[in-house]
């Protein structure tokens, strides 16, 4: 047992039971996504592959989301993001990695959705990078922490309507030209995708630099 566990014991995010972040009872309350959707039209799509008719050269090739953004997963992401409980990332990534369908393309590289420098300083860390590091280790896929940058501060997407979100995020990212991106299949990692606008915008920036495929990989959607 870690010394910290004595002073700050792990508690189930949902019921408060001491010892684990997700007790067996509350794991059952997680609303895992069992019907994958196409990231473009939101209609059901096998294993999250973008429908051929929805596919575009600079668009996402697919999306994997572990759960709906509610219940224990919502609480856990909140603890991770706002209460600095970074230990929370480990069990969440465990669920995510175990849930990945084996039909997904093999990712060459993982890239976290970046925070603006100012925001990252305020928070002390980028939660997407925390997740990316863990997933990278579990899947044995390299990650690139700094190639994609957020160059514009944006209003939190949750405060905006659908169309406003797309405009809000437009031009918010920059990616340095690099041969490590050429012809690669990239897993773009984020904690929550609400409307997928952020994933789409990152994807556009990456694909302009000869990235072959981009998949969004998120803990929660909706
Ligand atoms: Zn519980
Ligand atoms: Zn579609």
Structure, explained:
Helix 4 (89-99) crosses helix 6. The protein has 222 residues and is of the alpha/beta class. 32% of the residues lie in helices and 16% in strands. It has a single domain, classed as Rossmann fold, CATH 3.40.50. The strands form two sheets. A four-stranded parallel β-sheet has the order 1-6-5-2, sandwiched between helices. It has a two-stranded antiparallel ribbon with strand order 3-4. One zinc ion is lined by residues 38, 40-41, 43, 51, 54.
Layout of secondary structure:
Layout: H1 3-7, H2 24-27, E1 62-68, H3 71-82, H4 89-99, E2 109-112, H5 117-123, H6 127-139, E3 148-150, H7 162-169, E4 173-175, E5 185-193, H8 197-207, E6 213-221
Parallel strand pairs: 1-6, 2-5, 5-6
Antiparallel strand pairs: 3-4
Bound molecules: zinc ion (2 copies).
């Amino acid at each position: 047992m870690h010394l910290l566990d004595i002073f700050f014991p792990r508690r189930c995010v949902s019921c408060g039971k001491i010892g684990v972040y997700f007790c067996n009872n509350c794991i059952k309350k997680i609303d895992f996504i069992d019907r994958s959707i196409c990231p473009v039209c939101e209609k059901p799509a096998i294993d999250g592959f973008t429908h051929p008719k929805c596919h575009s050269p600079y668009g996402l090739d697919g999306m994997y989301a572990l759960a709906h953004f509610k219940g224990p997963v919502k609480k856990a992401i909140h603890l991770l993001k706002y209460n600095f409980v970074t230990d929370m990332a480990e069990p969440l990534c465990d669920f995510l990695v175990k849930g990945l369908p084996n039909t997904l393309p093999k990712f060459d590289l993982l890239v976290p959705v970046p925070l603006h420098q100012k925001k990252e300083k305020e928070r002390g860390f980028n939660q997407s990078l925390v997740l990316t590091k863990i997933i990278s280790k579990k899947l044995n896929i390299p990650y690139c922490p700094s190639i994609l940058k957020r160059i514009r501060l944006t209003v939190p997407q949750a405060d905006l309507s659908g169309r406003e979100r797309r405009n809000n995020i437009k031009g918010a990212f920059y990616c340095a030209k690099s041969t490590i991106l050429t012809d690669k299949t990239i897993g773009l990692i984020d904690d929550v995708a609400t409307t997928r606008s952020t994933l789409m915008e990152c994807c556009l920036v990456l694909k302009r630099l000869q990235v072959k495929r981009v998949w969004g990989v998120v803990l929660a959607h909706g």
